[in-house]
Hints:
The protein has helices at residues 5-15, 25-35, 46-52, 61-72, 85-96, 101-112, 116-127, 133-157, 172-179, 182-188, 190-214, 225-229, 236-260, 272-279, 293-317, 325-335, 343-360. It is mainly alpha-helical. Helix 2 (25-35) packs parallel to helix 6, helix 10 runs antiparallel to helix 11 and helix 16 (325-335) packs across helix 17 (343-360). The termini are far apart.
Amino acid sequence: MQSCSNDSAAFYHQFNLTLKNVFDTQCANLLIQEHKGRRLAPPLKLAVICEEYGGKGFSTELKDGIKTEWLKMTGDIWAKRPMTEEMILYAAGDVTAIVPEVYENQKRYLEDNNLLAKFEERVEEEIFYYIDHSFKQKRRDRVDANVKEIIRNIDATYSSNASIIDFNEDGDEYRALKRIHFREAADVSVLIDRLKTELVRKDFIDLSEKLEQEGEDFVLMRSKVHLFDYEKHPDKLIANTAKIVNRKLNDIALKDVRTKYDMQSKLVFLSQIEKEALRSMRPSGFDDPDFPQVTLHLYWLLMEEDLQKKFDEFKETQRSFKMGEGYYKKMKFYIARRTRVPESLKRKARMFKNELDRTFGRDVVPSGNAGV
């Protein structure tokens, strides 16, 4: 398998199945690159993995066509039955492309260099990445430690007039500067702060140009949560550009939602960026005429799902549970007598608040310090 974390989470959450005996070609590639000296090796697309490790050559045209339909037109395409021949070829292609050459070549390298034990650890991490938060945190801690070390080396070895154009975009140093948060960069040194600012400006210029060229055809591939932070960047140009870009991305995502889904669609088919766009909406009620019916319907389903997740978290953590003041106010809005929200959401919010009142005190925002 290639990058099995999403497939693993789907099997686990939908069928209560846990993957075993997985050989993950992405995990193998990253570990091999680390062994060759990389500290922040980039994940590679399947076509590049095949090229790198002697796999079968294959055309990406079919995959690109299915992916475009999935991302822009039919959100629940993989729930459709019967599957089309193109869908079957798409799914099978991810396996036939890596067996046996990629598998055998990667496995031989891992065996020859005594890396199999570490590889099995990394595969387990990939399997549980979206199932058990501790595995995600383990990877984050490992990567962040490498980032900090690389940043320290940059600060110690580069001159004060170094520029972001001095770095190879595929190199570890560039990737470390890309990953470090701009506030952390400012705390390291003037040099790291300036390099990070230059990189962020460059990224926004590239993204803005792509949005301008592709318009509504722009394909949203990943979460944009990190972009919201840049709206508070001390550099006004970056902050203003981030606001413009986020508005455009939201508009595209909401248009995709209207196109891809209907009143029978389930939240499980929505991408993370589509959910983020829905959360940016501010409807006055379940019948707000300013919003299309489909997006409004999915918005309230998402609000109920979000509330349930917080309720479940509270049940697990009890007195150590924390909730932001903004979300607490939103929950009270759901409960208010004249608020036009779905009745099921109102009932759930009222039940949740009653539990919080009993634990933390009436109208007290949970801070995780009850009884301390």
